[in-house]
Amino acid sequence: MTPDAVIVGTGPNGLAAGVTLARAGLKVELYEAHGTIGGGLRTKPLFDSDIHHDICAAVHPMAAASPFFTEFDLTTRNVDLLRAEAGYAHPLPGGRSAVAYHDVERTCAELGPDGARWRSLMRPLLGHSGELVDLILSGPRALPGAAATALRLAPRLLAHGTPLATRQFTGEPARALLAGVAAHAVGQLPTLAGATVALLLGHLAHTTGWPLPRGGSARIADALAADITAQGGVFHTGRHIVDLRELPPARAVLLDVAPKGLLQIAGDRLPARYRARLARFRYGPAAAKVDFLVSGPVPWAAPETARAPTVHLGGTQAGIFRQETLTTRGIATGEPFVLLVDPAVADPGRAHHGKRPIWAYAHMPHGSTTDPYDLIRGQIERYAPGFTDTILAHRSITGAAYEEYNPNYVGGDIGAGAMTLKQSLARPVPQTDPYRTPLRGLYLCSAATPPGPGVHGMCGYLAARSALRREFGIHEAPALAHRL
User: Cα-Cα-Cα-Cα dihedral of 14, 18, 20, 22, to 10°?
Assistant: First the structure.
């Protein structure tokens, strides 16, 4: 039977697009190059059959807060989002650590003289969290109340996204705590894009949290796929699509690929001017990852660090700003910013018989071929002496090799494009509908479109809504809630 819509790529955005189209009553088929679906939402054993490792994404603050997942409601689909008492921690030299607890007042109390400043920064955002998330994750849509929320956000962005950032706190714990979150933008710091990421993710630590799905990230992909299948959708795995002619005829084709992939798949069918604009799309630094199998919890020098599953290893605010800026410029250093996740802190079931998974990646120059093992191990050891002695096995992957695993990660860029101010506002090219391409019925639904990277599903959802309006005349959003 001829499908109404075809989707290439089954990462979180391809799956979100599939859910949206299938729930609108369309016949949907999805194509995946790997033998399993999920893109950045894959979980599998690497060294021991009892220990499962998240291959890409592990922690999901935006899956707990985004408009798409809020309506889809993972909790009704047997996906338990588990939260520890703290969202993230940031150890500092000298055996200290700053911790972002779910309880903002507890966080403020431990930040000492900067507690009042942290409260002043976060409290107004917490009181309008829904509007803030909608504003940042809305893409090009106009939202009621957006102007008021933008005005509330603007002075904070200027304070923390410019050189003024170094003057907002008096002590290093608060400075580093926010700078570590800004580093999730994987780009030069301080910048307005980095400040946006810091304020979005930072305030979520005190609201919906930084949860991990019980059993691993693949549980989210499984829930999305199950809903698509229940609506009659069909999956084709092990099918690497490199040309549109390989797909069955359909009124809408949505590509969950990077601009580089769009250029390959659509080729000369795209107008020369549009191809040239896609070719100018900038990619960001690489993520280079190490999966560890260890014999016990990370032996942090500052014990309070162990209260958070996510730990930022970058030292001081000045050190993070310097390191991230050099990395963006293609300059490698011996102390990269490292993001570590110990899933068993929130999900004890991930550890068995004295073995547990540790997930860690370093920010490296774009296309880096450097094995990150010693760099990452060294950064962890710096704040957790004795960590090396707990390592039972490890697997490292360079930034360049990440693109071999997933072509969307061009040069190891897991964010599908540099998080510059220009590209944050206009991904992948400036136009009113960023999901639509010049080819009739062809849409881009990857993280290279607004609102950008993260497991929130909004790129796929918004691209699907565009296709529904333009190709099928369906203007009403389909219901996403689980039919019990």
Answer: 170
The pLDDT value given to residue 142: 47
Helix (H, G, I), strand (E, B) or coil at 378: helix
What is the maximal distance between C-alpha atoms in the chain? 66
Amino acid in the structure at residue 289: K
Closest by CA to 396, choosing from 289, 285, 293, 294, is: 289
CA distance 464 to 13: 10
Are β-strands 28-32 and 234-237 bridged in parallel, bridged antiparallel, or unpaired?
Answer: parallel
Distances (CA, A) of 373 to 332, 336, 392: 15, 12, 14
| Segment 94-140, tens digit of pLDDT | 999 999 999 999 999 999 999 999 999 999 999 999 999 999 998 65
Q: Give the length of the chain.
A: 484
Return the pLDDT at 143: 52
366: confidence class by pLDDT, cuts 50, 70, 90: very high
CA angle, residues 64, 153, 324, in degrees to nearest 5? 75
Q: What span, in angstroms and rounded, lies between the C-alpha atoms of 255 and 445?
A: 6
pTM: 0.95
Q: Are strands 286-294 and 391-397 parallel, antiparallel or unpaired?
A: antiparallel
Give the pair of three-digit tokens for residue 95. 């055996």
